[in-house]
Write a structure and sequence with these properties.
295 residues, alpha+beta, 3 domains, 4-stranded antiparallel β-sheet, 3-stranded antiparallel β-sheet, 7 helices, 7 strands, elongated
Length: 295
Amino acid sequence: MKHAVDPHLPFRQLISERLDGVLPRDATVRLRAHLAICPPCRMAERAYLRDRLALRSMNPLPPPRDLWARTAAALDREIARRPSTSRRLRSDRRARRADSPALMLSALASLVLGVAVVGTQFGTSRDDLEATDDPVVALPTPFGVPTQALAFVELTPAGLAIYQTTVDRVCPPASIDCAEVSTTHRRLVAAPGELTAVSLDLHAANGRLALLTIDDMGNDTVSVVTLQRFLDPVPPFVGPLRSDGPVVRSSPVSPSVSAADRTPDGIDGTDPPASDDPPEGLPSHDGVEPSRSDH
C-alpha cells in the first residue's frame, strides 16, 4: 500500500532553502504563487522564521576548559583496564588452531620447545618474572588554569597560621593529587596577652585579615592583620615552624577610636591606604602586621 505524498512538502523544502540562500528564479515564482493560495504553508514559513531568529539569538557556549583533560584521563583509564588488541588476536588464533586436528603435530613440537624454554628460565629470579607482568598504570594529566592567589588560615597551639600560595594547575576530579603545589608560605600571628581567636574574615582584594578574639574576662578584641606580600610571588615552603618569620605582637591603640573604624595605620577603614609602609614610630617587620581595637 502506497502512502499519499504530501503536496505541500516540496514547497516547505523551498521555504527552508530560501532561508539559507537565494532560490532560482523559476523556484521563487512557483513558491510565491503557492504561498498566495496556501495558508498552511504561510504559517509554516512564519514558524521557520521564528525558529531561525530564536536560534540566532542564542549565545554560543564555549566548551569547558577541562574538557580535553577529562577526556584524556578517561581514555587513559580505559586503556589501562582493557587488554591490548594484539593479545586478544593471539588468543583467538590459538583457539582456532587448537580446533584443527591437522595441527596436532605442530602443537606437540611447540610443547617440546616450550618445555625447553621454561627449563632455561629456572635461573631467573621470581621478582624479575613478576615485574614483567605488572600492568602499566596511566597517570592523569594536570591541566592549566588562570593563576589564582589563595590564602587560608589555621588555628594552632602556637597561634594563628596563615598560608599563602598560587595555583596555576589543577587535576581531574578522579585524581585530585596529580599536581603538587610548588610555592607555599606560612606565617604565624600571635594575639597579645591571653586572647583566644574566635572568628576571622579575609578580604582578598587588599590582603587584610580581620581577627576577632576574646580574653578571660569575656571582652572582645578586633585585630586587623595586613599581609604585605599578599599579591606578590611567595617564596617556597622551607620547613617546620621554627624556620618561619618572626611572630609580631599587636600594639594597643587608643580606646577613644572605634574598633570598626580602626586600621593598622590609624586611618578611616572606609578607604584603606595604598602603601604598605609602617607608620612613623613603629618598627618595620617582614611578615604580618596586626593592629588591635578593644570593645
